Every structure is written in C-alpha cells, then in structure tokens.
What does this fold into?
Amino acid sequence: MFIPVQQSDRTALAIIENLPDAVLVLDGEGRIQWASPSACESGLAPAGYMEQSATVPIHPDDVARFAGGLDEAITHPGRAIRVRALAVSAATGAPKPIEATFRFLPDTPGIHGVLAVIRERERDSDAHTPRGRDGLRRDAFARSRDIERESEEQLRQVVRLSSIGIWDHNHITGELYWSPEHRKIFGWAPDEPVTATNDAGTEWQTCGLVHPQDRERASRSAKRAHDADSDGRFDLEYRIVRRDGSVRWVATRSQTFFEGTGDARRPVRTVGAVQDITEQKEAQRQLQLTKRAVDKCNTAIFWINATGQVTYANECACRSLGLSADELVGRYVWDFDPDFIPSRWPALWEQARRDKSITVESRHRHSDGHVFPIEAVGNYLVIDGEEHLFVFAQDVTERRRAERERQLMHAAIDKSHTPFYAIAPSGQIVYANNHACLMLGLTRDELVGRHLWDIDPSMDSGQQGSFWAMMKARGIVHFETTHRRSDGTTVPVEITANFFSFKGEEFTFVFISDITERKKAERALRESEERLRQAVLTYDIGIFEHDHITESVYCSPELRKYLGLEEDTSVDIPVPVFKDCVHPDDRERTYAAVARAHDPRGDGRYRNLYRVIRSDGSIRWFETRSQTFFEGEGAARRPVRTVGAIADITERHLMNHALKRSLHEKETLLREVHHRVKNNLQIIASLLHFQAKKVRDPADLAAFIDGRNRLRSMILVHERLYQSADLSHIEFGGYLQSLVRDLQRSYGSMTRHLDVRVCADKLALPIEAALPCGMILCELLTNVFKYAYPDARTGHAEVSLKAADGRAQLTVSDEGVGLPAGFSPEHATSFGWQLIRNLTIQLGGTATIGPGAGTRVMIDFPTSASDP
It folds into this structure.
C-alpha cells in the first residue's frame, strides 16, 4: 500500500530521484557540513573537509560561477540551480570536468542548508572510448554495478542522516517494503509484516494508521497518484495515529511508475519516502501563534536594530502611527519621536545593552501630525548573532488623562470648602481633607487615625456596628449631630454619609456641613415668625393663599373672623365664595385689579381698597395687598399661587374720611384768611395811593410810592396762595413775572424807556421765603427804575431766577451808571439796602455785587426756610 509523504521530505526524495555521484550538504556561507563517501573519494571533500569551503577543490577559473550558483540557490529556496562546465583541480594533472546542482532546503530536517549534487562528466566520455564489443559490454556492466552499489550506499547514508523512511510498493505482487526508519516513524515492529490490501483488494492495514480527519484527503491523493492518466506524483502532509495512541505529523512524497499505454496503462510500482515532521509542525504552529499574537497584540511592538532603525512593527504599532508596515519598517526612532535627538541613540543603546532592558517616556507623532504620549519598555536580545531591542510602546493618553483627573479630583476634595473624611468599618478615620482639619482645629496627622466617637460626643464605640449595618443597608444617610473641636467647643453639623465598596474594601465617605449659621437663621426665623404672628394678632391682619390650580383659597382664622365665616381652618374657601363677599359697588373695580395682578404679562402685584359685606350683612372696609407667582415662559406662563394679607381698615377709613373733611374745611378757612389779608393790604395800598395825591414834596411822594410797591409784593404773595392748590407754597417764577409787571405800571413814566426781561425757573417757595424774596426784588428793581438810567435814557434790565441742588439764585442786573465807587451792601446806610440786607439774612442767604459795567446784584439762598 502507498503511504503519502510530507513537503519537508522533498530533500530525501530529490536525492532518490537525482542520485548524484557526490552529495554535499553546505551552510549559507558555502561551508561543508556533510559529504557522501563518493564526494570524499572524488576529492570534492578533502581531508578535514568539515567547516571548509566547498570551493577549495574547484578550479580557480570556476570558483566565481560555483559561488554564484550557490548564492542563487540561497536566494530561491527549493529551486534546483544547475551550473555546468565546471572543473575540479586534480593533484595528478589535468582538471576533471563536473556539473553541480544546488538546492537550498532550510526547513528540511537533517539538512537545513544547501544540498549540492555534483556529477563528473568524464563517464560520458568513457562510454565512447573505442574498445571491443565484449570488453565494452563487460566494462559497461561492471561500471553499472559499481554505480548501483555506490548509489545505494549514498542513499543509505542520506536516509540515515536525515531520518527518512523509505518504502516500496509492488502493485503486481502486492508486496510492501518499509525501511527500519519508516517502521520507527509509524511505531511498527522491525519484523512485523506490512500489508497494503486485504483479500478484497481494498486499502486496509496501512490506511487505518492515517488520522480519521485526514484519511479521506490522503486516500484521494493516493488514488490520483495511482490513476493511469496522472504523472504518478504524490506529495502530502497529514497526521497518523500510532498504536500507542500518539498522534504524529508525517510528510510523504512518492512516485508511481506505470507500464503499458492507453487503456492498458497500469501502475506497477510506487517508491516513496516519509519523514516525521511533528516537531517542525509544532514549531511552525508555535511560530504562527506567536507571530499572530504579536501582530494582533493591543500593545505597539517594534523591533529596533543597533542603528535605531525599525526592522519589524506589529499591526498596533502601525495603527498608532497611521502607517503601513512597509512605510514604517526602515524608519528610525527619531522619524516618529519628535522628542528624540539622534545623537542620543548610541548612549541609549549602550544603556540597553548594559542593563538588558530600558524604560522611557516620550511622545510619538501620528502621520496626520498629532502627537500623543507613550511609555516604552525595551528588552535587549541577541538572536543569531544580531542585536535587537524588543520594544513595547503603550499609548498613555488615557492613563495620563485619568491620572490628571484623579489628581484634580483629589485636589478638589482636598481643597474643597466642604469638610470631608473617609471612615473604615472600625469607625476609624482613614482620610480627611484640609477643611475638615480646619473645622476641628486639628492637623491631618492628628485627625487621621481617630475614631468617630473621638470627635462626635453623641456617639460611642458600641454604636459603630449598628451604624455600619445601617450604612450598608441604606447606602446613603443624612442626619444632624455635633462635632467637638480641639479646644473643646462644639459645632452643629449636618452629615451626608455614603457607603462605598472598592476591591473588597468597605468605606463610608462623610461630607460635613457646618450649620451654625443655619441654626442661627432657623432660630431667627422662628423668632421672626413668632413676631409676625404676634403682629398679625395685634394688628388684626388676615392672611390668605390662593391656589390657582385647585381654585381654592386658604384663609387664616383672623380673615375668617373678618368675613364672618366659620372658624374651621382645615377647609379651604372656593374662589367664588371669596369673590362674592366684595360689595357690589366695588366689584367691577376690584375684579379688574385682580385680573391685572393675575395677568402673566404683569408683575403680579395687587393693592386695593374696597368694601366687604359680611355674612351678618354689615359692611366693612378692607385693604388688600398680594403677590402672584407664575411658572413657565412666554405663552405658557401662568399664575400658580397668590399670597396676600387683608386688613380691616373700617375705623381708619372713617377717621381718614372725617380728617379729610376737616382738612378741607380748614383749607377753605385758610384761603379765606389769605384772601382777607390780601384785601386788607390792598386797602392799605389804596389809602397810600390816595394820600400820595395830596403830597407835594417829591421826596415824600417817592416814599409813598415805595411803601405802596412793597405792599404790592406782599399782596401778590397772598393772592397767589389762596389761588394755589397748595396753601403753603407758591410758584415763584410766575410770581416774579407778575411782580415785575406791577412795579413797571406803578412807576409809570419812569419805566417807559426801560426794557425789563424776566427769566425764571419754576420754583415752589414756602410763604416764609416768598415774602422776603419778593420784597428784595421790589427794592432792587426800584433802584434800577430810579437810578440806573438818569435823564430818561433808554436801557435794559434783567431779572433772573435759577434753582438747583436745593438752592436758588435771584439776580437783578442793568447796564446803567452803576453803583458808587467803593460801595458795599454790608455798609450801606440807605433804608432800601438795609432792608435788602436784613431780608437776605432772614432767608439764610448772601448778597453779592457782580463785577463789570452797570449793576449786578445776586441773592443766593436755600429754597427751604428751615435750611441754614
């Protein structure tokens, strides 16, 4: 029966099919690792041949071509490279012609190098040497027998050295030969017979050794090799199950020979070789697993050589830099590490060589330009004499971010103004932030390690167990207690405790709020509420609250009492009942005011005075103030709650009504008084006017006129007062206009040549300021009329009143002859200036003479008589 062989045993089959005169096994440098006996006899492997170059016996003219064929074979593993017309240097004389065939088989057990097959070409020439027919036949037969024996010996040595099993299947007789090496591979006894088929002619015993999962594939390959239309070649790797149950991988290669042609063609003999490749398969599997694991590793892996150049990069490394493997391999470390200076590489390499490993933190640059932090760990390795740095590079962007967030969180907790500490199940404080230490007046070393009951006087060690059980059950707890400071004083605190479990450890995180101020505020609020309650009781104020959602109104007991309703405060009053209490004459006005307060576009404020009809029919006056609160925005805004207070002001309203009536009567009386004073002063002025008609002395006449003008200023004040709505003040600007006109009419022809302009602000003056101010103006204008423009010269005069910041300035100016040199109001002896000075003092003001041509007198005084 035919047994398939594996790819790795092609070396043995190649030797069987291409049996040479001399066989050499060379390494990659062309040094001899093994030589067949024929190679030694032919001089191709001289004495001490091991580890010597195979070019030593080659003629110097052919060494280059011999070495070229060897290099080409190494470049193309598995390919047969033939070099013809070579010569071997012979010690006896002429060189011997040879041809060499090289095949590089790096993965073939027993060879792992170059298989060199060298054939001497002299044998062909011997065949043509003229000799007798019998002699030639005998020589040829002898030579053939020698070659056969020599070839068998070579084959035996190769098989022995490469652990190749040989088998031979005769399809005619059914005989099956297994060599000792073959039996050893399959676990077959040395003398145990081997049969290929059973009596029915089907594959039987040897086929049963093939692993069940590979049996169908092996059988199909064998049938194809035995098919009359095939080339008879068989080459397969598969598993076998030995009798001891062990599973082995084997490689089988065979050649089936046929006889006959056409339909009569049939297989007659199959010769093959088999080799155990279990270790090779396992090594390949491990290599593939390792390579795949490295390629698919989530850590970037680089191989770096002694020059800093990348010789390998896995998929993660390529992804991290945005490059393909072809783009990355061949680059230098500093090509993608912006922080690395090329001149530093030798020192870094020496450090890695010395310490065997090295750890650095740096940055890598992605192909799109962005830079990210990495941590790299490099291990120094020497493989086949080559130095490498096996580098694991980890992107630490997220770790850096997490570390920064952790640091920020720790700093935030540590610097937080909220005291915080962590407690272990034993009740011991294992951490405390700065503010907790400050609140208790302790350092962190003093606070950490203490127990809860050391700082909480309301707690003892016996309560810790139940407290911890409650924390685990609830997860979060809020309560108030007190903490004791280092000086012995206590502070009220509010505690928020959270249970937390981390990596099998349990903690309680405690946040503390100093509620000293809140306690004070609560106490103040209670006191304020009590005062408010007392004030409500004292002033008979009723409180109400209108719920716009339920359209019900809460009324306090006082308000129920005002309305004459039942005192059951547990029942709210419907809004219609509350509205129906309003007096019919006041409802329209009251409802309109309520609607404005409830309008979402308004501010919700309400204030109203109206009458209420109590349940007993009596009428009371109420004053209501309220505030409506809204929710929502824009069109969705709506009133939800109105809170207000109602006071019964019936007595106060009646008193105010009586007071207003009395005040109106007094105002009427006062207006009558001012009217009568004005009339009396007018009578006196008329008497002076009639009396002046009898006076012939001009000086006396002037005195009468001046007195009457002074009276006119007072008459105008009283006239303005009883005509004014305000009986205590007059509008002084209008008063000035009237007084100037009256004075001009009084002096008649003396003022026809004068143009007097009045410019006065609106100013309300009390009577006690208006009277002296009017008399001052009268005196100043009289001086202008009499003395400013003598001989009836034309001229201008101006009266000005300006008011600002609670003070007023009365100015009278002209462009006339002016005052005498050295004139001073304080030292003037005339009656008029003495009157001006005294009235100015009465006003609390000052009199000033302005500079320049003509006369300019300014009286500055406060607008209120009470001002200094």
The mean pLDDT is 80. Residues 650-692 form the longest helix (43 residues). The CA atoms of residues 612 and 620 lie 5 Å apart. The first strand starts at residue 22 and ends at 26.
